[in-house]
């Protein structure tokens, strides 16, 4: 082959000067599939899956396959910027890193001096890898307000787990006979999870899926329940009632290890299959089939997702009702039931939280949502930010240092932005030029995962410290380097952060006996030895009790009992219908369900990355059932106006049987058709403060003429 032919075929060899570098994909953050990049003259010319990666095994989704367009996007930030126009106007001039970092340090310290450290928020969106540094910086600065996207993701599920069992658990999937998947679709949301799920289906595991939509996951289920969104609590209580009526509960487990069973049993008795059918739309026979399969399997485990069940005004209570099924059937403490997942020994927790929450002022939002203060020890909720900025109560909020922070993930983003305008100072770190940056005083350009070194722990007992595959583009830096540089400028005397990434990593990794540099020799991940692993035995609670106030699994929560004067804080998992439900004759006659994941999109990240969207339309579209469309004279591809009582959007109608009749779905994060503008800030779960993103009411009408906000 000639050199030209070799170059055209992108063959890595001496003649072409093309080299291969292995790293991980950071686009869809928590999955981190293995990535193999071909590099020529410091530029990525090809991106493939790394077949030697034990999690993803060479698979790469459409987003990862579009790595080159993502990394070399026109929208990448190139230099640090300083605002010169009004907040929101988007006028900036380039400045040096020294000027930018000095300004950030000066302004954050000014707010600290004048209003106290708690007046400064350290916020993050969806990205995960830099969070230990952000929380450490925040807590060492003296502020309790380390706030992540978890105010609308994960924490409410964790909260529900803590209220019933005292800590997080997950399915012992490798050994279970029956997996009850409550609203998750890994075939769209995570390559590594999907591979794991498929492997267990292949060995004969049965699956029940509770999901209003038809998805690749529901298509593999033995039983698929399709409740109306936000009615999950009634489904779970109905399953409990069937199990009790059939005498399939585990009496021994219940009497020894649980609290509140008799009240729970009496309450669940109201949920007859016929009533559940009325409340949820799930046919009585299907409910029964699911309950029997779950309870009669030798072992059964529940797989829950971070967001769909809790994006409702009743999410925490609904999840408590769902998780109670595991205790009812004794699926704790045995192979194939619920298990506290093992982890690799590290000092991650000590690194991330060097100061106890109890030594700091109360976090944002705890005054309104006290369960955050009672059981959540990871971060604060961002849902309280706008109100506290406006009222200054319980104390003023004056400045923000945000990393990958996007105010549009919250409901009513215009009101959120208005509140941000009132802050004295905002510094934001991002990869791309975003809408949120328009409100910043200083903007700092971050580099992407292929341009940095980072540590990741995987659930399968492997871990990795990556090497940068290419140099940071333009004048960007890794988020961690930025925070380490800031730490010393803020005057924080931290022997770890002030010495940079590797010093921090070596501290975190110390219990494994490995250093960051040693781990870099394993580009396909390093498998932890048994001595490096830590975990609780399956039946840990038999000796130590559950880590709840009573030491038992709590059908009736002692923590909620303490706060039962707050609305919705019922100790039993009482079922309240979603805050908004369409009734016959209503103007807003459809359920609006937003954010069900699309394989080619991640929140705001991919709208400008066309390569990932070749098999799906790039236009903002809402999914609706053909029967609902027909009633409204709508055909496939029509321009429609989707309205809630708060506003409307022009989008395209995509007719699909995947949507349950009566339910309309739309993805979020599209700045040009932002569905979060259709939600009021007050439409929330009273316990978690989560927005009711997945059960609002709407109407859909054929658009009178072409045009509008759609893209
Ligand atoms: N209506 C509706 N709204 C929702 C949801 C829904 O289902 N429906 N889902 C909610 C959920 S579960 C979540 S998790 C949130 C997520 O919402 P967001 O946090 O908004 O998620 P992203 O848009 O992925 O990321 C935020 C920012 O991180 C930037 N970024 C990407 N990589 C990096 C990096 O390496 N470093 C830095 N510094 N920045 C980076 C991106 O450019 C982007 O500006 O949205 C929530 N909002
Ligand atoms: N491609 C892609 N992958 C992602 C993301 C992304 O934006 N894009 N985001 C990541 C994030 S932040 C998260 S939190 C996870 C979420 O991960 P998943 O939970 O796996 O994905 P979702 O599509 O949000 O929700 C799963 C299913 O829940 C169903 N559902 C919606 N409302 C309800 C309800 O009220 N009750 C029940 N029982 N089911 C309901 C939806 O129809 C959907 O099929 O995905 C992560 N992975
Ligand atoms: Mo999420």
What attributes characterize this protein structure?
single chain, 711 residues, alpha/beta, N-terminal domain of TfIIb, Rossmann fold, Dimethylsulfoxide Reductase, domain 2, 4 domains, 8-stranded mixed beta sheet, binds ligand MGD, binds molybdenum atom
Describe this structure as you would to a colleague.
- Helix content is 29%, strand content 18%.
- The chain is an alpha/beta fold.
- The protein folds into four domains: 3-60, Single Sheet (N-terminal domain of TfIIb), CATH 2.20.25; 81-148 and 381-459 and 471-531, Rossmann fold (3-Layer(aba) Sandwich), CATH 3.40.50.740; 169-339 and 547-562, Dimethylsulfoxide Reductase, domain 2; 590-702, Barwin-like endoglucanases (Beta Barrel).
- The strands form eight sheets. The protein has an eight-stranded mixed β-sheet with strand order 5-4-19-18-17-6-7-16. Strands 25-29-26-28-27-30 form a six-stranded mixed barrel.
- α18 (413-421) links the parallel β17 (399-403) and β18.
- 53% of the residues are buried.
- The model is unreliable at 707-711 (pLDDT under 50).
- Molybdenum atom binds at residues 153, 306-307.
Anisotropy-based shape: globular
Indicate the CATH architecture of the largest domain. 3-Layer(aba) Sandwich
Low-confidence stretches: 707-711
**Helix percentage:** 25-40%
* Rg from Cα: 25 Å
Q: Write down the CATH topology of the largest domain.
A: Rossmann fold
Q: Helix- and strand-based class?
A: alpha/beta
List of distinct ligands in this structure: ligand MGD, molybdenum atom
Count of separate structural domains: 4
Number of helices: 24
């Amino acid at each position: 082959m000639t050199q030209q032919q070799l170059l055209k075929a992108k063959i890595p060899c001496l003649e072409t000067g093309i080299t291969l570098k292995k790293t991980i994909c950071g686009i869809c953050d928590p999955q981190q599939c293995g990535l193999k990049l071909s590099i020529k003259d410091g530029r990525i010319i090809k991106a493939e899956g790394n077949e030697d990666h034990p999690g993803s095994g060479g698979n790469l989704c459409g987003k990862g396959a579009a790595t080159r367009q993502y990394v070399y996007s026109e929208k990448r930030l190139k230099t640090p910027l300083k605002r010169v126009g009004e907040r929101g106007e988007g006028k900036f001039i380039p400045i040096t890193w020294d000027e930018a970092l000095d300004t950030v340090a000066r302004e954050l310290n000014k707010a600290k001096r004048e209003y106290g450290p708690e007046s400064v928020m350290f916020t993050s969106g969806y990205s995960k890898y830099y969070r230990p540094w952000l929380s450490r910086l925040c807590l060492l600065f003296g502020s309790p307000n380390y706030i992540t996207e978890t105010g609308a993701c994960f924490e409410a599920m964790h909260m529900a787990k803590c209220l019933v069992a005292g800590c997080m658990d997950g399915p012992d999937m490798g050994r279970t006979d029956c997996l009850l998947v409550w609203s998750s679709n890994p075939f769209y949301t995570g390559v590594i999870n999907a591979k794991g799920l498929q492997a267990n289906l292949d060995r004969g595991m049965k699956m029940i899926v509770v999901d209003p939509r038809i998805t690749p996951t529901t298509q593999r289920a033995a039983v698929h329940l399709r409740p109306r969104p936000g009615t999950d609590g009634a489904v779970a209580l109905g399953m409990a009632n069937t199990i009790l009526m059939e005498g399939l509960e585990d009496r021994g487990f219940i009497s020894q290890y649980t609290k509140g069973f008799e009240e729970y049993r009496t309450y669940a008795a109201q949920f007859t299959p016929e009533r559940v059918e009325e409340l949820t739309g799930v046919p009585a026979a299907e409910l029964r089939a699911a309950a029997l399969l779950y309870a009669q399997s030798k072992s059964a485990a529940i797989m829950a997702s971070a967001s769909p069940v809790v994006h409702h005004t009743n999410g925490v209570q609904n999840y408590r009702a769902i998780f109670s099924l595991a205790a009812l059937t004794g699926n704790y403490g045995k192979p194939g039931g619920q298990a506290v997942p093992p982890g690799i020994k590290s000092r991650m927790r000590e690194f991330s939280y060097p100061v106890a929450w109890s030594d700091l002022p109360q976090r944002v939002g705890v005054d309104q949502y006290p369960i955050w203060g009672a059981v959540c020890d990871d971060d604060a909720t961002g849902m309280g930010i706008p109100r506290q900025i406006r009222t200054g109560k319980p104390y003023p909020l004056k400045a923000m240092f945000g990393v990958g922070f996007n105010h549009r993930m919250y409901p009513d983003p215009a009101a959120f932005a208005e509140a941000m305008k009132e802050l004295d100072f905002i510094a934001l770190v991002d990869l791309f030029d975003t809408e949120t940056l328009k409100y910043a005083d200083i903007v700092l350009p971050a580099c992407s995962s292929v341009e940095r070194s980072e540590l990741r722990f995987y659930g399968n007992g492997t871990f990795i410290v990556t090497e940068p595959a290419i140099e940071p583009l333009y004048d960007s830096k890794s988020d961690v380097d930025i925070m380490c540089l800031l730490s010393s400028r803020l005057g924080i005397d931290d022997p770890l952060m002030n010495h940079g990434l590797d010093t921090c990593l070596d501290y975190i990794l110390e219990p494994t006996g490995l250093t960051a540099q040693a781990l870099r020799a394993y580009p396909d991940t390093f498998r932890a030895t048994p001595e490096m692993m830590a975990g609780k035995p399956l039946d840990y609670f038999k000796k130590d009790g559950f880590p709840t106030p009573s030491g038992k699994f709590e059908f009736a929560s002692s923590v909620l009992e303490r706060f039962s004067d707050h609305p919705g804080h019922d100790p039993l998992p009482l079922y309240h219908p979603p805050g908004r439900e369409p009734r016959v004759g209503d103007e807003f006659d459809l359920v609006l369900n937003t954010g069900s994941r699309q394989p080619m999109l991640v929140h705001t990240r991919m709208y400008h990355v066309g390569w990932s969207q070749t098999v799906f339309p790039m236009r903002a579209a809402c999914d609706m059932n053909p029967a609902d469309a027909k009633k409204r004279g709508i055909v496939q591809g029509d321009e429609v106006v989707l309205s809630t009582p708060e506003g409307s959007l022009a989008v395209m109608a995509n007719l699909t049987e995947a949507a349950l009749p009566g339910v309309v779905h739309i993805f979020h994060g599209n700045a040009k058709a932002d569905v979060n503008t259709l939600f009021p800030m007050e439409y929330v779960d009273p316990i978690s403060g989560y927005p009711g993103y997945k059960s609002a009411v709407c109407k859909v009408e054929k658009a009178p003429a072409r045009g509008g906000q759609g893209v």
